[in-house]
Design brief:
This protein has helices spanning 4-18, 33-39, 110-118, 131-138, 145-148, 160-169, 183-203, 215-218, and strands at 22-26, 42-43, 47-50, 53-58, 62-67, 73-77, 86-91, 96-100, 104-109, 249-253, 256-260. The two termini are 28 Å apart. The strands form three sheets. A five-stranded antiparallel beta sheet has the order 2-1-7-8-6. The protein has a four-stranded antiparallel beta sheet with strand order 3-4-5-9, sandwiched between helices. The relative contact order is 0.12. By secondary structure, it is an alpha+beta fold. The protein folds into two domains: 4-118, Alpha-Beta Barrel (N-terminal domain of MutM-like DNA repair proteins), CATH 3.20.190.10; 131-260, Helicase, Ruva Protein, domain 3, CATH 1.10.8.50. β4 (53-58) and β5 form a beta hairpin. The longest helix has 21 residues, at 183-203.
């Protein structure tokens, strides 16, 4: 599932393509046809992301809410005839953005958008976000920090990659219950996410290794993975840790594979 940086990048790309433009909104597949017609041929009012949710604004305080889910994608190209099952298309004479396979695509009111956003935890990519909102949930919970970081009502936008990587970078045992996590450790996690995730927006990939652990510095092959990016533990099961050399471990936590280093991550 795309993580928060992907949605923020898509919001930026949509605004770059359509700001100041009258946009044709359609549903080539037909499932979003009635809603698309209500905002078709209107001036683009802007897109914004909160966590893993994307909101596109139109006149009359109407918003198209998009959640990509596991298989959704939003891709840009020329406004040629659509190919495949395109749920939603934004288009001008020069560019089109096609949405396929989303978990959610709905026309909502501003009140509905505010209600949805109120259920999300703070987003590290939001400069106005308050990390204390997340801390108040974490410090009162017996769930593991690995589970809590994936809970979008606790922290918005963090997915499986950033979860595993930030816990490694801070040397935190992923099984640590939230109520046992030190406040200083939470502050370090938040600061690390605030630093790392904007790089994901800018580069459209997740890189988390520090300069001394890059392939060039370590003399090791670059990572080859569909997700791209240089990481410490994510999808590196039974490969040597870049720091200590012990084998990276994995197991399922709340339906997703967690990756960690048992030797490096002992801190609670």
């Amino acid at each position: 599932m795309p993580e928060g940086h992907t949605l923020h990048r898509l919001a930026d790309d949509l605004n770059a393509a359509f700001t100041g433009q009258v946009v044709a909104v359609s549903s080539p597949q037909g499932r979003f046809g009635e809603s698309a017609a209500l905002v078709d041929r209107q001036l683009w009012h802007g897109a914004r992301a909160r966590g893993k949710h994307l909101f596109c604004a139109f006149a009359g305080e109407r918003w198209i809410h998009i959640h990509l889910g596991l298989i959704g994608s939003l891709r840009f190209g020329p406004p040629s005839p659509p190919v495949g099952q395109v749920r939603l298309r934004f288009a001008t004479d020069t560019v089109a953005a096609d949405l396929r396979g989303p978990q959610a695509c709905a026309l909502i009111t501003d009140e509905e958008r505010l209600h949805l956003e109120s259920r999300l935890g703070p987003d590290p990519l939001d400069p106005a976000a308050d990390p204390e909102r997340a801390w108040s949930r974490i410090t009162g919970s017996g769930r593991s920090i690995a589970a809590l970081l994936m809970d979008q009502s606790v922290l918005a936008g963090v997915g499986n990659v950033y979860r595993a990587e930030v816990l490694f970078r801070q040397r935190i045992n992923p099984d640590t219950p939230g109520r046992r996590l030190k406040r200083a450790s939470w502050r370090a996690i938040w600061a690390d996410l605030v630093e790392l995730m904007p790089y994901g927006v800018a580069d459209n990939r997740i890189d988390t290794v520090r300069p001394e652990h890059t392939p060039e510095e370590m003399g090791r092959p670059a990572r080859v993975d569909d997700h791209g990016g240089e990481v410490y533990v994510y999808r590196r099961d039974q490969q040597p840790c870049h720091v200590c050399g012990s084998m990276i471990r994995t197991r399922v936590v709340e339906g997703r594979n967690l990756f960690w280093c048992g030797r490096c991550q002992r801190r609670s």
